[in-house]
Amino acid sequence: DAKTTQPPSMDCAEGRAANLPCNHSTISGNEYVYWYRQIHSQGPQYIIHGLKNNETNEMASLIITEDRKSSTLILPHATLRDTAVYYCIVRVADNQGGKLIFGQGTELSVKP
Amino acid sequence: DVKVTQSSRYLVKRTGEKVFLECVQDMDHENMFWYRQDPGLGLRLIYFSYDVKMKEKGDIPEGYSVSREKKERFSLILESASTNQTSMYLCASSLVLSVLPNYGYTFGSGTRLTVV
Description:
Chain A is mostly beta strands. Chain A has strands spanning about 10-15, 20-25, 35-40, 45-50, 55, 60-65, 70-75, 85-90, 105-110. In chain A, the strands form 2 sheets. In chain A, strands 1-9-8-3-4 form a 5-stranded mixed β-sheet, with no helix packed on it. In chain A, strand 3 and strand 4 form a beta hairpin. In chain A, about 40% of the residues are buried. By secondary structure, chain B is mainly beta. Chain B contains no helices and 11 strands. The mean pLDDT of chain B is about 90. Classes of the chains: A mainly beta, B mainly beta. Chains A and B meet through strand 4 of A and strand 4, strand 5, strand 9 and strand 10 of B.
């Protein structure tokens, strides 16, 4: 299974863009990059996923490098409610449904 | 709004008790998962199921069993609870991988189990 490496913690000023990096140098060609976040005392929440093209939705943007060895999650205008642990996950692709294996994630603190 | 519902938010049980953690999803998802989360160890997969009556061991199945008699319900069973099973337990569900684009897992809010 491809593994990911994320910084353990980051700070961001409220209203600024938060850029969360992730390295996944052993990713396979058919594996997707997923991002989840977990706000304190809640279950993880899906944010976005991508294969090789950049993706954007109402929550965030995902930038994947051309060689797919790294990606960046961008929260364009961070708010205090974005304070959470963010997980970058490479999805194990198997016929029974692709288990999600979580790493330690990045603890993002958005400060006023 | 689609949901994964876990029956209890907080639970306190005694050592040696048989404990049932229930999870129900209303999204007609094929796959269901049980994780536990501990400080410093992150989320670890206990068991998962990709169909009714089917189950697969995750990374830490010891001391646990599961039951999936209906598509919407996935139960985690602690046959004889021990103090090292004190943890936050999270249930999740998803569509089968082959259904594209798969938007990911939906998690429940978690059950914080304390074994005394």
